[in-house]
């Protein structure tokens, strides 16, 4: 290889950084890995931070011989937000996207999202995603990316799912997750939407979200207090205003998961 090509290879930075926290995910991890390796868009880096798994998740990841994949092992178990932040600090790609270790992308996800971001000059974009059982069989109708997202409408419901969203870090900067909150993804998206006027929808289903019976996002009644704190502690709203948005979030959450297939 010519010297100039070697220098380029060393300096080349992937266009997309994929951020994944991993904790005891061995049951589904191989399917998730396959969905990334099968992407038609190949200019990516995948930074996986293992959050002190006690199963064989690390061993599964270490078996992959792909230089685009970086495995980091956290010094302590700090939760998904902490693990994502560790990966984010290492990320060098222009476009940042997220994939949990039990979720799944269709092979065109990255290609479609990057093309959409560039074509529409988007700073944040999100797509439809299928809501499936643990075997990736659709359980609820697809979540639809059917409207532009603003800070104001994101307060009432979190339309931006991590597995189907992407943002341009060159334009909006990296946004880290608040640690210690069970609603860290909502806070992160709200902080990003403070910086830009709108996030844009791509109405195609290109991702699959596993709905586990014990999923935190499904147990709305157990996290109402955590959602209230999103507004009260992180957005610094008054008590009355925080209660108003918490009620709206709860009602929208009920509607979001109300249409279950027989």
UniProtKB/TrEMBL annotation:
<dbReference type="InterPro" id="IPR029044">
    <property type="entry name" value="Nucleotide-diphossugar_trans"/>
</dbReference>
<feature type="domain" description="Glycosyltransferase 2-like">
    <location>
        <begin position="17"/>
        <end position="135"/>
    </location>
</feature>
<dbReference type="Pfam" id="PF00535">
    <property type="entry name" value="Glycos_transf_2"/>
</dbReference>
<dbReference type="InterPro" id="IPR001173">
    <property type="entry name" value="Glyco_trans_2-like"/>
</dbReference>
<protein>
    <submittedName>
        <fullName>Glycosyltransferase involved in cell wall bisynthesis</fullName>
    </submittedName>
</protein>
């Amino acid at each position: 290889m010519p010297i100039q090509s070697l220098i380029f290879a060393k300096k080349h930075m992937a266009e997309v950084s994929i951020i994944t926290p991993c904790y005891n995910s061995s049951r589904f991890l191989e399917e998730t890995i396959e969905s990334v390796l099968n992407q038609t868009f190949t200019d990516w880096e995948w930074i996986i931070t293992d959050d002190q798994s006690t199963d064989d998740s690390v061993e599964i990841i270490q078996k992959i011989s792909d230089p685009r994949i970086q495995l980091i092992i956290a010094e302590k178990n700090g939760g998904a937000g902490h693990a994502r932040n560790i990966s984010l600090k290492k990320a060098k790609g222009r476009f940042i996207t997220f994939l949990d270790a039990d979720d799944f992308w269709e092979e065109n996800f990255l290609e479609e999202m990057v093309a959409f971001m560039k074509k529409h000059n988007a700073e944040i974009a999100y797509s439809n995603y299928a809501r499936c059982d643990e075997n990736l069989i659709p359980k609820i109708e697809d979540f639809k990316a059917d409207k532009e997202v603003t800070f104001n409408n994101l307060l009432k419901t979190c339309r931006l799912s991590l597995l189907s969203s992407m943002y341009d870090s060159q334009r909006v900067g990296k946004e880290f997750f608040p640690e210690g909150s069970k609603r860290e993804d909502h806070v992160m998206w709200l902080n990003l939407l403070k910086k830009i006027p709108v996030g844009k929808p791509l109405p195609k289903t290109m991702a699959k979200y596993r709905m586990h019976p014990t999923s935190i996002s499904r147990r709305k009644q157990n996290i109402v207090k955590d959602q209230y704190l999103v507004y009260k502690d992180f957005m610094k709203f008054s008590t009355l205003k925080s209660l108003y948005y918490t009620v709206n979030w709860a009602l929208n959450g009920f509607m979001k998961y109300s249409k279950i297939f027989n």
